[in-house]
Structures are given as structure tokens and as C-alpha cells.
Design goal:
The chain has about 110 residues and is mainly β. The protein is built from no helices and 10 strands. The protein starts with 10 loop residues before the first strand and ends in a 9-residue tail after the last strand.
């Protein structure tokens, strides 16, 4: 299983598919399937049945579906362009993610 370099709340841009070029925030990471759910990307319609016990109204609901992690790229914090992700250790020993394009630290 490949290691997931993306994390929740990362800002990403979609590289391929029907939503190519869209930017969004990672809402959920599914490492076992190597997929991510991105806000406003890959929106599908689901027909739901009413369930009064769970306070769910019936009808057609739009929500985001998962997209493969290889189809998204992290947005570089400096240039706001797509970039790959690397990892390095800082002088104080912390391990942080960096942008390959500019070398800027991605983690807070």
C-alpha cells in the first residue's frame, strides 16, 4: 500500500479528469484505497430514502465522491502552483512536509 502524503485540510488542485484545474480543500483521506475527498470536486447525486429517526429528508442529495490521490497535487504555499510533496527534518528534529517546487514548509 503506498504512503499517503496528503492530509486533511490540505489545499490541492485537480490535475486530470472532468474537474481538471479545480482547487479545493481535502475533506477526507482514504489511505487504504489511495483516494481523497476534495471539497467541490467530483460531485455526484445520490437518491436517499427518508429516515425520520436520523433526521434525514428524502430526495436527491449532491455530495463529493472520492478521487484518486494521483490525480491531485498539493498547492505550493509560496507560488500557489501545483507541486509534489517531499519530507525533511528541521534543525530541531521535527519531520515536516515540504513543497518540491519551492522548498517551502507545508505543515503548520
Amino acid at each position: 500500500m503506498p504512503k499517503m502524503r496528503l492530509k486533511k485540510d490540505d489545499s490541492v488542485v485537480v490535475r486530470t479528469g472532468k474537474d481538471a484545474g479545480k482547487r479545493g480543500r481535502v475533506l477526507q483521506v482514504l489511505p487504504d484505497k489511495n483516494r481523497v475527498v476534495v471539497e467541490g470536486v467530483n460531485v455526484i447525486k445520490r437518491h436517499t430514502r427518508p429516515n425520520p429517526q436520523k433526521n434525514i429528508k428524502g430526495g436527491i442529495v449532491e455530495r463529493e465522491a472520492a478521487i484518486h490521490a494521483s490525480n491531485v497535487a498539493l498547492v505550493d504555499p509560496d507560488s500557489s502552483k501545483p507541486s509534489r510533496i517531499g519530507a525533511t527534518r528541521l534543525a530541531d528534529g521535527r519531520k515536516v512536509r515540504i513543497s518540491r517546487k519551492s522548498g517551502a514548509v507545508v505543515d503548520k
